[in-house]
Amino acid sequence: MGTPLTEHLCKVLVVGDLGVGKTSIIQRYVHKVYSQHYRATIGVDFALKVLKWGPETVVRLQLWDIAGQERFGNMTRLYYRDAVGAFIVFDVTRASTFEAVPRWKDDLDSKVSLHSGKPIPIILLANKCDQLLEGLGTDLPRLDHFCRDNGFSGWFETSAKDNLNIEEAASCLIKNMIANEEGTDSKRDPNVVLPTLKNKTLKNSNCSNCAKF
Question: What is the protein's membrane topology class (predicted)?
Answer without folding.
Answer: Lipid-anchor
